[in-house]
Design a protein that fits this description.
- It is a single chain.
- By secondary structure, the protein is mainly alpha-helical.
- Helices cover 70% and strands 1% of the residues.
- It is built from 17 helices and two strands.
- β1 (210-211) and β2 (214-215) form a beta hairpin.
- α13 runs antiparallel to α14 (338-351).
- The longest helix is centred in the middle third of the chain and has 35 residues, at 154-188.
- The model is unreliable at 133-149 and 405-411 (pLDDT under 50).
């Protein structure tokens, strides 16, 4: 009878299944030490940047550790432990090291820590999770023409090295562009807590950027101070003789801090009954929007719109209806109701034909593949306010490219 072959594969050690837990343990330890008291990752800023950077370094780390393990298992153990301790020290020291002020410097810092961590993890994998002697880790080298594995060629090392730097750098650049837009939006809507979070992350992506005509380090400090002031204000107990102004101030502060559930606790009693105030409907829609509840957000903004439609004309009515239509259009987009979204933006442009509103309508048309209407409103936005010129040009370029013909896009 043929006996089952339990001999481990030549190219893999018997305990290779222990490699993933070993790598994960090392990465988690380094990540934990990189976290600052605010929960941001020094040098990396965000979890996905850290993950991409570390994973991109693993191939070159394992390739280098494989060469060390072939020569001496004891060398792999010593080197792995020393590198791991060095990475831990570097992660701890990152909190006291001033963040490099250039994109190149922060990119090199991330790549250096990633490579050292990957090399440490790989050495520990070969040394600890592979009890076989070095000879079993790799068959002896076989000369050319005799078959077998050859040492990694130079181009492979170059490829691994390029991937270690290029992949995280490309991903971080794309993430920074998106985060910069979010930061500007949060600043424009006075979302102090969210703006501070975005600014802290963006500064770790690319410290050379600016926002609101201010360098990110100064802006982060200012936002942190403002956030602390608002949080201290929230901690103050409310007096027994509450006034509408006090309640409004508390709601506004909670919304600025993105503590929307707490804000709703103050808003709901003002949405009906003798304590009714119409501004509560708008705030209700806003809080539900930020809590990603588009149906409830729509309900709040529609109630606000119906209330103000019954009121006599006034600047307050006009402003409230503009806010309501913006909220309805946004909720309709989230709910996939294209017709209602377009109608809301069209009415918004009729009420207030500003550059911002024309650009919102252009964006809606663009997403709905209505190329000519999108281009027309984008051009109107640029004509009304030169600040929208660059965004309009970008949209027109994209429309021409997406639809394979500049003849569809008016110039």
């Amino acid at each position: 009878m043929t006996q089952p072959n339990n001999t481990p594969r030549k190219n893999l050690p018997a305990n290779w299944l222990l490699w993933p837990p070993t790598v994960i343990a090392v990465l988690v330890a380094i990540r934990h030490l990189l976290l600052d008291p605010s929960g941001h990752l020094e040098w990396f800023g965000r979890e996905d940047i850290y993950a991409i950077s570390m994973l991109s370094s693993l191939p070159i780390g394992f390739a280098a550790a494989r060469r060390v393990a072939k020569k001496s298992r004891s060398s792999a153990i010593v080197l792995g432990v020393c590198l791991f301790l060095g990475c831990l020290c570097l992660a701890v020291a990152s909190h006291g090291i001033a963040l490099p002020s250039s994109l190149l410097a922060i990119t090199i810092a991330r790549a250096l820590l990633s490579c050292l961590t990957a090399f440490a993890a790989a050495n520990l994998c070969f040394a600890i999770a592979s009890p076989q002697p070095p000879a079993q880790l790799e068959p002896p080298a076989i000369g050319a023409g005799q078959g077998g594995q050859q040492a990694l060629p130079a181009w492979a090392w170059l490829l691994f090295g390029a991937a270690t730097i290029a992949i995280p750098a490309t991903y971080t650049h794309s993430a920074a562009e998106s985060l910069e837009k979010k930061l500007n939006e949060s600043l424009a809507s006075n979302r102090v807590a969210l703006a501070w979070k975005h600014c802290s992350q963006l500064r770790r992506f690319n410290p050379s950027l600016t926002a609101a005509n201010t360098d990110l380090a100064t802006l982060e400090s200012n936002l942190r101070d403002e956030k602390a002031r608002l949080e201290a204000e929230i901690q103050q107990p409310m007096p027994s003789n509450l006034t509408l102004a006090m309640i409004g101030r508390r709601i506004t502060t909670l919304v600025q801090l993105d503590r929307n559930h707490e804000a709703l606790g103050w808003i709901r009693p003002m949405m009906s009954g003798r304590n009714f105030h119409p501004i509560s409907l708008d705030f209700y829609g806003l809080c539900q929007q930020r809590l990603e509840q588009p149906a409830e957000s729509m309900r709040g903004y529609e109630r606000s719109l119906k209330h103000w439609e019954r009121q006599p004309d006034s600047p307050a009515k006009n402003n409230a209806m503009i806010s309501a239509y913006k909220g309805i259009a946004f909720a309709a987009r989230q709910l996939g109701n294209r017709r209602l979204e377009e109608e809301a933006y069209q009415t918004l442009v009729h009420l207030a034909p500003t550059a911002e509103n024309h650009f919102l309508l252009a964006t809606s048309y663009k997403e709905h593949q209505k190329t000519s209407l999108a281009a027309e409103n984008a051009q109107l936005a640029a004509e009304l306010d030169p600040q929208y010129a660059e965004q309009a040009r970008s949209m027109l370029t994209q429309l021409s490219r997406d639809h394979f013909s500049c003849f569809l896009v008016p110039r």
